[in-house]
Amino acid sequence: MKFNKAAAMSAIALASVLALTACSGDGGAKSSGTPAASTSDAAVDYSSLSGTITAGGSSAQANVQQAWTTAFQAQASNVKINYDKSQGSGGGVTNWLNGSYDFAGTDAALSADQFSQAKQTCGPDGGVDIPVYLSGVSIVYKLDGVKKLNLDAKTIASIFSGKITSWNDPAIAALNKGATLPSTPISVVHRSDGSGTTANFTTYLHQQQPSIWTWDAGTTWPNNVGSGQQGGSGVVNTVEAGNGTIGYADQSSIGDATAASVEVGDTGKFVDYSEAAATESLTQSGTIAPQGAGDLTVTIDTTKINNAKAYPIPLLSYDVLCKTFKDSAQGKLTAAYLGFIVSKTGQQIGAKNAGAAPLPESFLSKAAKTLASVK
């Protein structure tokens, strides 16, 4: 999904309408310093804020960050937000740990080692992972003459591990009865950069098919099957430019590329991505497992996803920031922006303009509480 001028205007309009609706219910908002993070639609006066927020990382968040930035700046005209999507999750976290970013977008929570390193960046209070964006990992392909494709976890793992190498393999044919599958060789495309999308995808592969996908989940592609490309857009563009190609990317970045339907467990039900299906997926599979006070790392167990209401490959993305900033004003400014993101308004803007799936309310309320404590 591309974020464009029309979407920008929609984001501004939605933010304004929701704010005005909230104002009519409480007699109008009153400014009292830096706004507190909130998941409610109560009007918040951002007009007193000023400054620049520097961030970057997850390319999966690129479209949604643009939508959030546009809507936020419509209410906080003296705030500038720079989000560099070219870094990917790995580069974003590295730059944040180096002190270059106020927050980093990452599709994988901080590792235990990174969480420990954050104490050197932030001081003894360290950093926190805040879930902000929910989507799904889409399996995109380009195969002349084949516009509909069903795949299950075993077949996906076999393709991306190099065990299935042609499109007319019996395992693929068994899932697509009646389809004419050519003998075209399969060309796998994966991320070359450190990628949280890779982490989400390899988590799914390892949990679902550990005997085939023997590598641990991680942000780095673990084998030499196929070709590596920078960013989700690099993967999608390469898949689209070829024939017999297959890759993986965040749903929001696939544009007009064709995505396979993926089987939920062994139910025989093949599901396409939808926002509702992604939210249901996280509800079934996600458990908050804090690495420290206020942290909201989520453990996802895809084996718990067991019905056709859920999309089987969820992608949960975080923004990570310090609990205590060296400049308290910068900390409050950053927390105000992220508080807007995890508000109901922010989540609706993400859904309307970037195809994001709304996070469960229980996640949002915890995120708001953590952000309110940032100083």
Quick structural gist:
The chain is α/β, with parallel strands linked by helices and 375 residues long.
Summarize the helix and strand pattern as letters.
Answer: HEHEHEHEEHHEHEHEEEEHEEEHHH
**% residues in beta strands:** 15-25%
CATH superfamily of the largest domain: Periplasmic binding protein-like II
According to CATH, what is the topology of the largest domain? D-Maltodextrin-Binding Protein, domain 2
**Which class do the helix and strand fractions yield?**
alpha/beta
User: What is the residue-averaged pLDDT?
Assistant: 90
How far the N terminus sits from the C terminus, by CA atoms, comes to: 35 Å
Count of strand segments: 14
CATH architecture of the largest domain, by name, is 3-Layer(aba) Sandwich
User: Percent range for helical residues?
Assistant: 25-40%
Count every helix, treating DSSP H or I runs of 4 or more residues as helices: 12
Q: Round the Cα radius of gyration to an integer and report it.
A: 21 Å
Q: What count of structural domains? A: 2
Shape: elongated
Please tag this protein with its features.
375 residues, alpha/beta, D-Maltodextrin-Binding Protein, domain 2, 2 domains, 14 strands, elongated, disordered N terminus
